[in-house]
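Researcher: I've been going back and forth with a colleague about how Integral membrane protein (TIGR00698 family) might be arranged in three dimensions. Neither of us has a model we trust, so I'd like an independent prediction. The organism is Haloactinomyces albus, in case that matters for your notes. Sequence below.
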Amino acid sequence: MTAPGESGGFLPFRKPESGVRASLGMHVGYDVLRGSWLRSRLLGDEACRVSELLSAVRRNAVATSLWPGLVVTGVAVVASLTVAGLVPAMSSLTVAVALGILAGNLPGFPRSARPGLAWAMRRFLRVGVVLLGLQLAVSQVFGLGAGTLVAVVILVATSFLGTLVLGRVLGISQGLSMLVGTGFSICGASAIAAMESIIDRDDEDVATAVAMVTIFGTLAMLVLPVVGSGLGLSDTELGRIAGGSVHEVAQVVAAASPAGAAAVAVAVVVKLSRVVLLAPLVTAVSLMQRRTSAAIGGRRPPVMPLFVAGFLAAVLLRSSGILPETVLAVAEQVTTVLLTGALFGLGSSVRIRALIRTGPRAFLLGLGSTLLVTTATFATMLTLT
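Model: Here is an independent structure prediction for Integral membrane protein (TIGR00698 family). You can compare it with whatever you and your colleague have in mind.
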């Protein structure tokens, strides 16, 4: 018997298979499918094991590549702390940047140390800024009085914005101007280290800003006691002006020391009140960067960097009074070590030729910013306090 075909002809009619034979075919097909599934499952498990093995190998390779740089960083931290101990007017952060620039530009500096130095710079910096908050207590700041706090806010805003304007007039990059303005108005190298991670800048800009903090902070430290004595300032007045105008904490202490312990105590608290403004300043700049990035379609930074939020949390933790003095003392030492290591790594990435190119204009920027912050401090502290 035949059946109609698609083309109008006839095809042989096939008798349906028996039940046994059809069942056998179904089982054979099932076995084939199950075998394929099992093979794919086994291969999938094997692929997962291979992937995990490769991930472990990569992690070990990364860890191994970091060790040379971390060892170099450790040696540099010890050397920087030693020099800073011998020369109290210089902070270990400043020494670390100088040593990093020197080491990074030596012809025989090992390339194998670069990954570890870069890792230390990023990680140590953020943790160090967070721990910096443990040095501040809100009660200390409020104890200065409303007039002093208003004066601090005005002088910080005036110094930062004025430095940006001066940098534009001198034709200096916005990155360098921001770093100099932050360092001079807030707390020197620590503030520069916090700001550099959220703005568009060159490594040479960071080294130049730290160098300006060192040069002009040292000059202010030497000149301010003489000027204060000539103007007949009281111990408290000199302490307020030193805390409001000198950059590094060590330089503030040295500038106020000739006037006695009372002047030093006031100077340090005023200085720390400037440090409190680091978080809102960095957050404001980050918001500005977000708007700029959105306008050009680039990657937008966070509203508040995580390490800045950690800094504020550390301030609140210190203000709660639950941490014993021994813990705070250890945290202060750890902060110094971490920031010293971070700035050594940063300095090692700087190229001296590029640094020299910005020298004269950067010097003028540092001089102008110093005059600006000093003038603003005298004007606000002597009229509002």
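Researcher: What would you highlight for our discussion?
Model: I'd start with this: Strands lie at 2-4, 10-12. After that, consider the following. The first helix runs from residue 19 to 86.
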